[in-house]
């Protein structure tokens, strides 16, 4: 059976799809799976060994530019997609745009979430078969349940992202920690002062730190952390996703924000603490016993607001919102210690008070 999977973005959503693919391949080893994904995430989708072919789509650029060049590129992409026939197309995204993409494929059946289950209910009108999956579940489990409903099986209890074998050559460094300091929303950022305090604690406990950055503003924050912790380091240039993944596998532990790379660390089974303020980790947070979705100990009434600006701060403020400043470095460190056993199975560093 040949299957076309539609899950185009975002980075975290790509990782959330891996366990469902693993389940399906274990149940039906003969299936062939191709995956339509945004061009920027094609590198990631190809990591899963069950994926035969990644089909990049540049939908964001085409929709933004809306010129003849984009229209021509889209027509060529659509023609190439239709050149292969599939037994089944699965829209695991549940949006209008992803549902439209299912119609561009040549296939016997089109599957997706039903009206009450889809993120955008109108998407359900585009499928030949719809499936009821509770919205109250974590995104990982929703996708697993969608696949299980389509192919009539029960997902196994164990969660398997299925990508660790890509990085088997990377050796673990039990004294290395990675900080992921960047994210797409200003309101999701942790204060530089908190990062500096956490860095000092880690260095005092004998850890080596590497700070991952992806923009000029993040590079400046990394340098400010290094100014108080000279033994910490950062890459000189922006890294590829694969190179970052290797660093996350190598690390004993990772501290990050609500961002795709924190989800990647969790998918790679590295002990990971992800800090949450304006967004909720309940349905889209990190998953697995080796992870922790951390919020301030006494949450504000406005959490989660899911806003890119904080009503408690002046308009257009770039300050860290109270829901993030309320997460203390000592709190982060102590939670990390619970996930970070040493080779003997005991905590490598004392908890702080």
Describe this protein's structure.
- This protein is an alpha/beta fold.
- It folds into two domains: 2-162, Rossmann fold (3-Layer(aba) Sandwich); 165-339, Glycogen Phosphorylase B (Rossmann fold, 3-Layer(aba) Sandwich), CATH 3.40.50.
- It is built from twelve helices and eleven strands.
- The chain has helices at residues 11-27, 42-45, 59-65, 68-82, 96-102, 139-151, 192-204, 216-228, 241-250, 260-267, 322-325, 329-339; strands at residues 2-6, 32-38, 51-57, 85-91, 106-113, 129-131, 173-180, 208-212, 251-257, 272-275, 291-294.
- It has a six-stranded parallel sheet. A five-stranded parallel sheet has the order 8-7-9-10-11, with helices on both faces.
- The protein is globular.
- It starts with a strand and ends in a 14-residue tail after the last helix.
- 40% of the residues are buried.
Summary keywords:
12 helices, 2 domains, Rossmann fold, six-stranded parallel β-sheet, 353 residues, five-stranded parallel β-sheet, single chain, alpha/beta
Write the layout of secondary structure elements.
Elements: E1 2-6, H1 11-27, E2 32-38, H2 42-45, E3 51-57, H3 59-65, H4 68-82, E4 85-91, H5 96-102, E5 106-113, E6 129-131, H6 139-151, E7 173-180, H7 192-204, E8 208-212, H8 216-228, H9 241-250, E9 251-257, H10 260-267, E10 272-275, E11 291-294, H11 322-325, H12 329-339
Parallel strand pairs: 1-2, 1-4, 2-3, 4-5, 5-6, 7-8, 7-9, 9-10, 10-11
């Amino acid at each position: 059976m040949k299957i076309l999977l539609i899950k185009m973005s975002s980075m975290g959503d790509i990782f959330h799809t891996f366990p469902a693919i693993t389940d399906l391949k274990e149940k039906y080893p003969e299936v062939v799976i191709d995956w339509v994904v945004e061009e920027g995430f094609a590198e990631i989708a190809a990591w899963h060994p069950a994926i035969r072919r990644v089909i990049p789509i540049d939908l964001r650029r085409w929709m933004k530019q809306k010129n003849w060049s984009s229209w021509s590129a889209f027509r060529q992409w659509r023609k190439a997609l239709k050149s292969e026939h599939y037994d089944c197309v699965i829209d695991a995204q549940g949006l209008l745009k992803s549902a439209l993409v299912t119609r561009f494929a040549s296939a016997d059946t089109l599957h997706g979430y039903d009206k009450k289950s889809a993120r955008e209910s109108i998407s359900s009108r585009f499928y030949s078969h719809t499936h009821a999956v509770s919205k109250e579940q974590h995104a990982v489990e929703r996708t697993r349940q969608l696949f299980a409903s389509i192919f009539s099986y029960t997902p196994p209890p164990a969660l398997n992202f299925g990508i660790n074998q890509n990085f088997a050559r990377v050796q673990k460094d039990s004294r290395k920690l990675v900080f992921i300091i960047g994210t797409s929303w200003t309101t999701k950022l942790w204060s530089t002062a908190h990062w500096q305090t956490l860095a000092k604690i880690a260095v005092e406990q004998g850890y080596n730190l590497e700070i991952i950055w992806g923009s000029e503003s993040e590079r400046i924050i990394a340098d400010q952390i290094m100014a108080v912790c000279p033994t910490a380091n950062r890459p000189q240039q922006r890294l590829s996703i694969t190179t970052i993944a290797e660093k996350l596998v190598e690390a004993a532990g990772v501290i990050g924000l609500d961002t795709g790379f924190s989800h990647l660390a969790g998918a790679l089974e590295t002990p990971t603490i992800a800090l949450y303020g304006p967004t909720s980790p309940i349905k889209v947070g990190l998953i697995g016993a080796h992870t922790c979705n951390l919020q301030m100990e006494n949450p504000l009434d406005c959490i989660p607001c899911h806003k890119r600006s904080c009503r408690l701060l002046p308009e257009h403020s770039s300050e860290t919102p109270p829901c993030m400043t309320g997460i203390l470095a000592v709190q982060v460190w102590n939670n990390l210690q619970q996930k970070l056993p040493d080779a003997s199975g005991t905590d490598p560093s004392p908890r702080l008070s």
